[in-house]
Amino acid sequence: MKCKSCSAPLPKSGTICDYCKHNNPLNLYLLEFKEVPLAKRDNTFLECPKCSNRLIYLNIGRKRDTIILYCQKCDGLFISHEALENTLEEYIGEKKRQNNHKLSFILNHPRQNRLSKNNKIKYLNCIYCQDIMQRKNYHSNSGVILHQCIKHGFWIEAGALLQLLEWKYLGGDKKPQYKEYLSLKYLNEKERQEASDFINQFNLKGQNQ
Ligand SMILES: [Zn+2]
Ligand SMILES: [Zn+2]
Ligand SMILES: [Zn+2]
User: How far apart are CA 22 and CA 2, in angstroms?
Assistant: First the structure.
């Protein structure tokens, strides 16, 4: 992964570039987004369920509006069920390139864990109704755990949305024999390097297909 501002490689953990100090939020890395002006939304004050930071309203839709609530401190975001599906479809759609080795690599190197210092299981409250959210493996085989309020949507932790986009891009949702990949832990060095290079340079915006 490269810094968007100066193209230096980002540190192994964290999103702040060592060289230019630019912050590269992982969840927004592949997305086009703009902040929603106050006049165009309700002005309810909503807090991050993880760090109590005030959430901002971002529009990440390309063809139609898709509003998410984003935490600038921890990179987590809240998105409705429908908006998540639309986003995966809108950004990946037919661009998929199935590749078992790369899929295996990302499943074994979850971005989601990259930023959290401990992996303690924590249940979070929904930002709207304050109910305890369930922890749910998206699509049962993505390896990405989301927090879900049945009524309102998902809380997606740092890096997990990026991982979902990559997973879909690599055909993860189309692979019934997926379980094999989890056991395919040992890539040879060349395959590992290839997968790793691919993930580091991953940039959907630059690809036309
Ligand atoms: Zn930089
Ligand atoms: Zn937060
Ligand atoms: Zn709720």
Answer: 11
Q: Give me the amino acid identity at 85.
A: E
What tokens were used for 58? 């971002």
Report the C-alpha gap between 60 and 57 in whole angstroms. Answer: 10
Which ligand neighbours the alpha carbon of 127 most closely? 3
Q: What is the CA radius of gyration of the chain?
A: 17
Phi, psi of 191 (to 5 degrees): -65, -40
CA of 86 to the centre of ligand 2 (A): 24
> Is 60 exceeded by the pLDDT of residue 46?
yes
Cα(126)–Cα(150) distance, integer angstroms = 10
Give the length of the chain.
209
Q: Ligand 1 mean position to 98 CA, how many Å?
A: 31
Q: Which two tokens stand for residue 139?
A: 């699509």
What is the pTM for the complete model shown? 0.80
